[in-house]
UniProtKB/TrEMBL annotation, chain A:
Topology versus the membrane: Peripheral membrane protein
Cell compartment(s), UniProt: Cell membrane
Any GO BP annotation: peptide transport
Record keywords: ATP-binding, Cell membrane, Membrane, Nucleotide-binding, Transport
Pfam families named in the record: ABC_tran, oligo_HPY
Record's protein name: Peptide ABC transporter ATP-binding protein
Phylogenetic lineage: Bacteria, Bacillati, Actinomycetota, Actinomycetes, Kitasatosporales
Gene3D superfamilies xrefs: P-loop containing nucleotide triphosphate hydrolases
Domain ABC transporter residue range list: 22-270
Family: Belongs to the ABC transporter superfamily.
From TrEMBL, chain B:
Keyword Protein transport set for record: no
Primary localization: membrane
Cellular localization per UniProt: Cell membrane
Gene3D superfamilies: MetI-like (1.10.3720.10)
Name of the protein in its database record: ABC transporter permease
GO biological process, alphabetically ordered: transmembrane transport
GO cellular component: plasma membrane
Secretion signal span: none
Positions of the ABC transmembrane type-1 domain: 107-316
Entry-linked SUPFAM superfamilies: MetI-like
Organism this protein belongs to: Streptomyces mangrovisoli
Membrane topology: Multi-pass membrane protein
Chain segments annotated as transmembrane: 12-30, 113-134, 146-167, 187-206, 242-268, 293-319
Length: 353, 326
C-alpha cells in the first residue's frame, strides 16, 4: 500500500490537493418537533480519480451531506456550519448563481430512483442536453448531438432514436444509464452517486457499476458513492467512510475497512450481511436496536445504546464522552486499538466465515 | 387521436339523448300546465283544450318525444308560427320565438362573458398562485393566500351590486354593464363587460390561486425537479419548465369544467348585471314552463360541458406524454 492510498479519504489539515474536502460540517433542520442534527461534525476528502464510498443505515446523513455539497437543501429550514471546499473554493457561502454554474458542470449527481428522478414530460435527449446547453452555451442542435453521443457511450443501443423517447419508454436500467449520461455530459470533476443501483435488479446493477468504473477511468472524475450495500461498496470504492447518526464512525481504504474493521457498528454491518455459503436455515444477524433519533441523539458515543462491547470500555465513557475520529485510518470508538484488534480477530471474524 | 374523438363524440351524443328523455319526463312531472299560463283571464275548458292541441300536449308523451326528435333532426313545417329548420326545438310557448334562433341570439353575450371572464380569472388566479408558490412562506405568499380566501368566499350577488354602486354609479369610472356587439364596436363591447368580467373573475380566481399554488409546491418537491436543479438549471427555468408542466393537468381539468358550465350560462352574473345570456333564458324557461326553450337550453348547456370534457381529455395527451388516447 502506497502512502498516497493511505492518505486518500483521510482529511489532511487543510485538505490540500483534494478535489472535495468537507471540514467539520454540521447540518441541522428546523422541524416542528425541534432541531434535527442530520450531520454532526463530518470531515472527509475526495481525490480526483478515486471513489469514496459512504456507507450507513437510512437516516445516517449520507444523502443530506451530498445534497448540501450542491446547495440543494432548503435554505429556509436548514442551517449549515463548517466548510465545503471544491478545488479550494468555499461552497457553503457561495452565491446561488455560482452554485448553479457548478451543478451539473463540475459536480454532477446521480439519484436513486431513475423513474422519479427524470421528468416524465420531456424527452430523454432533451433532459440530457439541457445542462450542456446551459454550461457550454451550446446550441440546441449541438447539445442534442452530444446527448446522443453520451447515450451511446453509456451503452444505449440505437441512441439516435432512443433520445427521442420519453423516460417511461425506457427500462429501469436504461433510465439509470440515461441519468449517468446526463451527469457526465459536461465532463464533471466530481460525481456524486446517491444509491444509484438500489432500485435496479442485480444483473443490471452489476452492469451499471461496471459502466461507472469504465467512465471514471475515461474521465478521471472523483466519485462519492453513497450506498447501504457493502457488497456494492467493496466492488466500487477505493476508500470507505462509515456513517452513523450524522457522524463518521470509521474511515480507511476499502481493504482496511472491510478486512480489519475497527468499529463495533461496522462489525454489526458486516455481520448482518447474508452470505451465499452460509446454512440456509441460519438466521440473519441484525444489529440490535433501532437507529437513533436525530432530534435527540444519545449522549457520548451515539452508538452506545446498541453496542454489545461497551462494558469492555470500562466506566461510563461511552455514555458521557463522544469518541473522536482521528485523521487517516481511524474509528470513533473508546475501545483501545488492542481491544479492537483482538475482538475482531477472535469474536467477529470467525462469524463472518 | 381521431378514433378517440369519434368514440368520445358518440358517447356525448348518447348522453345528450338520455338527458333529453330525462328532461322530457321531468317536465311532465311538473304540476304546472303551460297552457294555463297562456290561456289568460278568459280561460274556459274549451280554449284550454284548444291550446293543448296547438302545443301538441294532447298527444301521449312518447308520441310527443318522437315528434321532438323528428323536428330536431329533420326540421318541421308543421308549426303555426312558421317553418322551423333543423335543428328545430320548436317555438317558445311564452314568446312564440323560434328556440334555436333565440339561443343563437343569446349565445354571443354568454360567449363574451365567459371568454373575458376566463381570461381575467386565469390571469389573476394563476398569476397570484404562481407568485405565492415562488415566494412560498413569505408575507407575499400569506397575503395572497388569505386574500384569495376572502374573495373566493364572496358571492357575485354581493360583490356585483357593490362594484356597480362604487365603480359605476358613484365614481363613474366605468360605464354601466351592457352587452354591445363586438363586431359593431369593440370598445363599447369591452367597456360594457369589464365590470362583469372582473366580478366573475374575483370569485373564480380564488380557486385557481389555491390550486396553482398547491400543485406548484407539490411539483417543486418532486425528485425530477431536484434532478433538474442538480444539473444546474436555474430556479426560474425549473419553476416554469418542470414544475409548471406538471401542475397543468389539474388546472386544465378544472378550467375545462368551468368553461363548459359558464358557456351554459352564468345565471347569477347575468341577472346581477342584466346581461341577456343563456343563463337568463334557462331561468325563464323553467319559470314559464316553456318546454321547447327548456329542452333547448338544457341540451345546449350539456353539449358545452361535454365538449369541453372531450377537449380537456385530449389536452392531457399533449401535456403528458404518458397519456395515450383511445
Amino acid at each position: 500500500m502506497t502512502t498516497q492510498t493511505k492518505e486518500a479519504g483521510a482529511p489532511s489539515p487543510a485538505g490540500e490537493g483534494s478535489l472535495l474536502s468537507v471540514r467539520d460540517l454540521h447540518v441541522s433542520f428546523k422541524t416542528e418537533d425541534g432541531i434535527v442534527r442530520a450531520v454532526d461534525g463530518l470531515s472527509f476528502d475526495v481525490q480526483r480519480g478515486r471513489t469514496l464510498g459512504i456507507v450507513g443505515e437510512s437516516g445516517s446523513g449520507k444523502s443530506v451531506t451530498n445534497l448540501t455539497v450542491l446547495g440543494l437543501h432548503n435554505p429556509m429550514f436548514t442551517t449549515i456550519e463548517g466548510e465545503i471546499l471544491l478545488d479550494g473554493k468555499e461552497l457553503t457561502t457561495a452565491r446561488e448563481a455560482e452554485l448553479e454554474k457548478l451543478r451539473g458542470n463540475k459536480v454532477a449527481m446521480i439519484f436513486q430512483d431513475p423513474l422519479t428522478a427524470l421528468s416524465p414530460y420531456y424527452t430523454v435527449g432533451r433532459q440530457i442536453a439541457e445542462p450542456y446547453m446551459k454550461h457550454n452555451g451550446a446550441s440546441k442542435r449541438v447539445a442534442w448531438d452530444r446527448a446522443v453521443e453520451m447515450l451511446g457511450k453509456v451503452g444505449i443501443p440505437n441512441p439516435k432514436e432512443r433520445a427521442k423517447d420519453y423516460p417511461h419508454q425506457f427500462s429501469g436500467g436504461m433510465r439509470q444509464r440515461a441519468m449517468i449520461a446526463m451527469a457526465l455530459i459536461c465532463d464533471p470533476d466530481l460525481l456524486i452517486a446517491d444509491e444509484p443501483t438500489t432500485a435496479l435488479d442485480v444483473t443490471v446493477q452489476a452492469q451499471i457499476l461496471d459502466l461507472l468504473k469504465d467512465l471514471q477511468q475515461e474521465f478521471g472524475s472523483g466519485i462519492v458513492f453513497i450506498t447501504h450495500d457493502l457488497g456494492v461498496i467493496a466492488d466500487m470504492a477505493d476508500d470507505i467512510m462509515v456513517m452513523y447518526a450524522g457522524r463518521a464512525v470509521e474511515r480507511g481504504t476499502t481493504d482496511e475497512v472491510l478486512r480489519s474493521p475497527q468499529h463495533p457498528y461496522t462489525w454489526g454491518l458486516l455481520n448482518s450481511m447474508p452470505r451465499l455459503d452460509s446454512d440456509l436455515g441460519a438466521p440473519l444477524a441484525p444489529i440490535p436496536g433501532a437507529p437513533p433519533s436525530l432530534l435527540n441523539p444519545p449522549s457520548g458515543c451515539p452508538f452506545h445504546p446498541r453496542c454489545t462491547f461497551r462494558d469492555r470500555v470500562g466506566g461510563s465513557r461511552c455514555v458521557t464522552e463522544r469518541p473522536l475520529l482521528a485523521p487517516d485510518r481511524a474509528s470513533a470508538c473508546h475501545l483501545t486499538a488492542d481491544q479492537k484488534r483482538t475482538i475482531f480477530v477472535e469474536e467477529i471474524k470467525p462469524r463472518l466465515g | 387521436m381521431l378514433r378517440f374523438l369519434v368514440r368520445r363524440s358518440l358517447g356525448a351524443v348518447v348522453i345528450l339523448f338520455l338527458l333529453s328523455i330525462v328532461t322530457f319526463l321531468l317536465f311532465f312531472g311538473m304540476p304546472r300546465d303551460p297552457a294555463l299560463l297562456i290561456c289568460g283571464k278568459t280561460c274556459n275548458p274549451q280554449s284550454l283544450a284548444n291550446i293543448h292541441h296547438v302545443l301538441g300536449l294532447d298527444k301521449s308523451i312518447p308520441e310527443q318525444y318522437a315528434i321532438f326528435l323528428h323536428n330536431l333532426f329533420l326540421g318541421s313545417n308543421g308549426f303555426a308560427q312558421g317553418p322551423c329548420p333543423a335543428p328545430c326545438f320548436g317555438y317558445s310557448y311564452h314568446t312564440n320565438d323560434q328556440v334555436w334562433a333565440t339561443l343563437m341570439d343569446r349565445l354571443p353575450t354568454t360567449v363574451s362573458l365567459t371568454l373575458g371572464g376566463a381570461f381575467f380569472f386565469l390571469l389573476i388566479g394563476l398569476g397570484t398562485g404562481l407568485m405565492a408558490a415562488w415566494k412560498r412562506g413569505t408575507l407575499i405568499d400569506k397575503s395572497a393566500t388569505a386574500g384569495s380566501m376572502v374573495l373566493g368566499s364572496m358571492q357575485i350577488y354581493f360583490l356585483g351590486p357593490l362594484a356597480l354602486a362604487v365603480l359605476v354609479y358613484q365614481t363613474h369610472w366605468f360605464s354601466k354593464p351592457a352587452y354591445n356587439e363586438f363586431t359593431a364596436n369593440p370598445i363599447t363591447w369591452f367597456t360594457g363587460l369589464i365590470i362583469p368580467w372582473l366580478v366573475l373573475s374575483t370569485i373564480f380566481a380564488a380557486q385557481y390561486t389555491r390550486m396553482a399554488r398547491s400543485s406548484m409546491i407539490e411539483q417543486l418537491q418532486e425528485e425530477h425537479v431536484r434532478t433538474a436543479r442538480a444539473k444546474g438549471m436555474s430556479r426560474r427555468y425549473v419553476f416554469f419548465r418542470y414544475a409548471w408542466r406538471g401542475s397543468l393537468i389539474p388546472i386544465v381539468t378544472i378550467f375545462g369544467i368551468d368553461l363548459g358550465s359558464l358557456l351554459g350560462g352564468a345565471i347569477i352574473t347575468e341577472y346581477t348585471f342584466g346581461l341577456p345570456g343563456l343563463g337568463q333564458l334557462a331561468v325563464q324557461s323553467v319559470f314559464f314552463s316553456d318546454l321547447p326553450l327548456l329542452l333547448g337550453v338544457m341540451l345546449f348547456s350539456a353539449a358545452m360541458i361535454l365538449l369541453f370534457n372531450i377537449i380537456v381529455d385530449a389536452a392531457y395527451a399533449f401535456i403528458d406524454p404518458r397519456v395515450r388516447l383511445s
